[in-house]
Amino acid sequence: MKQTQMPLLETRDLSRTFGHGEQTVDAVKDVSFSLQAGEIVAVVGESGSGKSTLARLLLRLLDPTAGRILLYGRDVTKLRRRKDLKSYWQQVQGVFQDSFAAFNQFYTVRRALEKSLNVLDARLSSSERLRRVEASLTEVGLDVADVLNKWPHQLSGGQLQRVMMARALVVGPELLIADEPTSMLDASLRVTVLNLLLDLRKRHNMGILFITHDLGQANYVSDRILVMYHGELVEQGPVDTVLTDPQHGYTQRLLTDVPRLSRKYGDPS
Length: 269
Ligand SMILES: Nc1ncnc2c1ncn2[C@@H]1O[C@H](COP(=O)(O)OP(=O)(O)O)[C@@H](O)[C@H]1O
Ligand SMILES: [Mg+2]
Fold this sequence. Notes:
Layout: H1 2-5, E1 9-18, E2 25-35, E3 40-44, H2 51-58, E4 66-71, E5 74-75, H3 82-91, E6 92-95, H4 99-102, H5 109-116, H6 126-139, H7 144-147, H8 157-169, E7 175-179, H9 187-204, E8 207-212, H10 215-221, E9 224-229, E10 232-238, H11 239-244, H12 249-256, H13 259-265
Helix pairs in contact: 5-8, 6-8
The protein binds adenosine-5'-diphosphate (ADP) and magnesium ion (MG).
């Protein structure tokens, strides 16, 4: 099985600039990394370091300025036709920070998830669509009868975040790009979402790119950490190596900003 050896996702010198002339920002610059099926990789970095731009590039919601994206070795950088993007989104799905903004306010939970199923090639019967929607809501720990016919404003932040996960999962993706999915949740709900990511990996061997500005959360869920600084990947490695023996000055500073963590791992300064 050659495919299983190949990384699920690989980027090569992926770059994206915004603006023109003097005003140019290198939001993502020469980012190269890979992620295997069943692996959870955290992307950490302060606000403005390019994490969300990277997420949007990987989801093919934004075109790179340079570089390549490979999915199981297949170059997907130039996908543009609706049909090709739809098949890409069967494999790669995203969840975002602001779940309220991510939803059409005029769609019930059921409608939003059924819409998500439109990326599938197969024409599903309405009972099959409903079955998949219900299974997906159950998988993220929601009570189907309680949420199925509700509108976004009728749900709590925690419920909405799970509905967004369900919307991504309903198509059966192999890669989930999660852009700060917990940052608008309070602490107790955060752990639930992180545990859900761990469950998904275990149950479906899903690859997950988990974006966070919180090293504690990265430590909790991930196998490897990528550190971004001003659009560049300044350090990457196994979570324990990066947290106990950070090489880059920026990573060392990030660690000293997390007192609980630096105590646990020995003060890096
Ligand atoms: N659509 C855009 N137009 C112009 N600049 C942008 C756009 N999106 C992001 N940027 C800039 O790119 C940089 C990285 O932003 P972002 O990817 O949102 O970082 P993060 O998610 O790490 O906070 C920032 O300087 C931001 O202002
Ligand atoms: Mg962001």
